[in-house]
Each structure stands twice: as C-alpha cells, then as structure tokens.
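INFO  loader      accepted 1 record
INFO  loader      residues=588
INFO  predictor   begin
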Amino acid sequence: SGSGNGPAAVAAAIGLLVGLAAISINLARYPLTLNGTVSSYHGDFLFFEALSTSLATLGPHDSIFMSGSEIRYHWMVYAWAGQIAELAGTEPFFVLTRVLPVVSLVGSVLIIAAWTARLTRIAWAPSVAVLLLVSGGYVGATYGTILNFDSPSQQLATVWMLGGAVALWETTRRTSKRDSPSAVWKSLRARFWGLLGAVGVLAAVAASGKASVAAVLIAGWALVPIVGLVRRDRWAVPSLLGLAVALLGAAVATVAFVAGSQDGGGIAIGGFLDKASSVQGLNPVSAPWGIAMGPVLLMLAVSYRWAGLVWLAADRKTRWQPLTVFGVGLAASGLGALVMLSEGINDTWFPLAASAPLAVVSAVGVARASQAVLPAGNPGSIRRLVGVALTGSVAVLAVAWLWSLAPGTSTPLRWIAPLAALLFAAVIGLVWTPFVSQGLRRPSRFIALVLIALVSMSLFGRGLGIWSDRFGVQPEQGLTAFEFRPGAELIDSIDRQPISAWSDQEAAAAEWLKENASRGELVATNVTYSPLVPALTGLPTFISGINYQAPYGRAGIRDAILEREQLSLDFINEPSEPSFSELCERGV
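INFO  predictor   done
INFO  writer      dumping tokens
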C-alpha cells in the first residue's frame, strides 16, 4: 500500500516479462499439434495429464490407471488442472503446459512484489526479489529453477506456499514488547482468526499439492515460536497458534490424500549413496571424503541466492524479527534436507521450496545492506551499487564455465564452481570497499558488498548450463561398481517399456478411441507399463501406468496389478473365449 505501489508494480512488470519469455521458450518443447514423433515432453507428463483427467472425472478415490484402485500422491495441483481442462473442454496437455504456468507466474510474482514492497522502502528491492524468483538460480549448481516448467506441482504449489508464508507472517504483525496482553488479545480477536483459517487451508493444499513445499514451510516457521517463547516476545503465542493450525491442515491433507502409498515417497534418510551433490558431479575426488564434501559444496551453491539473510541475522535491529527468524528456519530446513536425504535430484526440491519466500527475505536483507554502505539518494551511491551488481553478473559467467568442466572431461573442475563464486564475490568486495565511504567499519562494508555481489550472481543462475551439453545429472563419483548398484524394482511387470515419445499416428489412434468409446468406458491395453493410453484418451484403463500405479497405489496391490496385466496381455496377444469373458466380467 502507499509508497510501495510503484516499486511493486515495476517489479511485477519485470517479473511477468521475464517469466513469460521463459514460458514462451519452453512451449517449443511442448507442442500440442503433433507432426511426426514428439520426444521433448518431460517423461512424467503423461502421468501428470492422465492423473489430472482421473481426478476431474473419477474423483480422488478411483484411478484412471487401475479401475477401483487409488493413487496416493500429492495430487491437488493436478486436480486443479483437471477441473479447468474439464470445464473448458481443452485438448490434452493444454492446461498443464499453457494455463498453469501463466497462472503460477502471475500469482507468485504478485505476492513476491507486494510482500517485499511492504517490508522495505528501497525501490529496487521488489524487483530483486521477483528476479530471484523468476530468473534466479544456484551459483555453481543446478536444479534451482523455482517455477520449474517440467514440474506443474512445483509451480502452482509455490503460489500456495507464498500465500501461507504471508499469512503466517501477518499473525506476528502489530505486536511488540510495548503492547499489553489485552492489546495483543484485542488484535487477535479483530483479525487473527481469519488469518488462521487462511493458514490452515493453504497448508492443506500445499501439502496435497507438493509435499516438500509444505514440509519446508512448516519446518521453517517452527523456529519462529521457539525463538519467540525463549525471548518472551509478544508474537510468540500468535506464531505458535499459526504453526499449530498449519500442522493440522497439512496433517489432515496428508492422511486423507497422500499417505499410505506402496512406496511411501521413496526418499532415503541418512543414506550415503545417490546424493544430490553426487549426481550433479560436485564430488571433488573419487573417495568417501570427496562424497562427503559434495553436499557442503552444494549447500554453498544453493545458499548464495539467500545471502541477504546474513545481513538481517547479523544486524541487531533485525536479528530477532519474525521475518529474519523465519528466513533462518527456511534456510536450515532446505539445507538440512541436502544433508539428511538421499534421493538424487529429489533432495533439491526442499531448498528449492525454501527459495521462494527466501527471495523476499534476501532482497530485503540486500536492500538494508546497501543502505548501510551507500547513502540513499546519492547518485554516486547508485553508480557504485550498479557497478557491484554488474561485476557480480560478469563473474557468474566464469562460474558457468567452470561448471562445464564436468566429470569425464580432461579437466574435471565442476566442483570448484561454488568455491570460485565465493572467491569472486570476495574479490569484488575488496575492489569496491575503498569506494564506499559511509560510516560502517571496513569489515562490515566488505561483507555488505560481498552479499550484494552474491545475490547479483544468483539473479542469473538459470543460465548456468549454456556453456556445455554436460549440464545436468552426472554419474555418481567416488563409488565402486559394487557400491553403486541399482535399487530393487518395486514390481516385476511383463511390460517394462517406459514411453517418453509418441507419434502423430498414435495420437490419431487415441483420438479415434475417444470418439468411438463411451465416456468412462473401461479400456484394456497392451501398453501397461506407461500411462500413454489414459493420457491421450482420457479413458479409464483396466491396468496401465504400472510404473506409477505400483509405487503410488495403496500398499498390497502388487499381485492385483500383475494379474490384471496378465489378463490384458493374454487377450490382446492371443484372443480367446475364456480371456474375452474374463475381461467382460471385470467391466472392460
């Protein structure tokens, strides 16, 4: 409100322009009109599309992949997409690849811009926060895209998480040590219950939309009432109530919709194999200590975009404010996941979730740091600030080049990239410190400039992979062939063929089936491992998508899956009266 309208509007415009440009680039990988064979879709999109249709047409307690069964999955985002597609009558993949990314972009950008503008009067801070959300990334590591086009659940759940974060933060406002208990209670009665309702609903939809998002939101906020109670701050009780309601909402949604699957999420706790740092090629050497160093380097690369939090935590005026404590909790939960979990790139969903609200915290921190060393309104200060930011933006190109030196190249130096980023920021701080003359001591000025440089480098982190086709997942380093062995298959189905591409002829066949089968008619198919048939036709299947139904169905359905697959293939491969009758009796 007030003076924040202008900077927030500018930030929103910047974020929407950059975000829409990124969406338009990604749309080339997701054509709706097939011409030949299309293989550019992410491998999970067939599952996402079929699940969306399933939830919209069959409800949450019947599976399009296995009639009469369930999918226990964080599916709320796909229920939203399926309902929109059902109401609008759109073709497959339109909502997931066109509507949802734009809605997620608009919602998250508006929340980030408005929230940051309420927290600081520095005009450029909302724009920094928005860019950290839309174009920002990790410096020396990958998988740092918050609005990940290949993950619809990550995109839309980010909006819900940001709404929940703002609602939780609002519960602590207008209460200070000068407020009397009666004044605090009056404030609670006036506005608090509505906030708690919003917190509960948003925590519930976040938990059933992307489990990692809700986990980080709740774990991050948990630190706020702990600190408040220890320090006896007036916002301790309101923040504790907010935490309790968020926990309740998330727990109800998890029990009702997510928990109880065959695989149980598949995330290992405390494992040494399949670390996110290992699959990114960040282990310095092929030895156990190198594998142990990998997560440390990854945590450095991840944390640079949150650098503004350091200034808020170090400043006595802001150290114990709810926003700062919340930021510390978010950072701890995101980085802690990289240490404790072991599930390849899935480890990175947690710090990625933390990065959305931390974009606001970091931007506010950097704004305060710049205020401390560069007097507001001084044209020379603006030039120096731009100079530091531009220097950092150039330095990130060197980090990107180091990233291209992946394991397997003649000079495997990818692991140096996160350390080099910190070194470059330190050099930038040393070079610019003499040109900053405001009252702070020289070490404080140096630290402020380093933080500004790190955040500037993070603004363009999404472009890290432009230097090399080796960008992305790498073979795990530092393990023998015996140690690094594939995990046991969850189910030994007959069809083992994952499908990540389909042709215009297959799409035409699916269209024929849609036109000639009644709505809801049960289909038997020989494509049982992949969810291709329900994704392209929208029709429920006797059994398909086994690679998703098996892990995300309820425990104990393994034998039923294998039986249905055998019945389907018996009839399709060698039609006979007994096999025909069996399928008819089952409703096919």
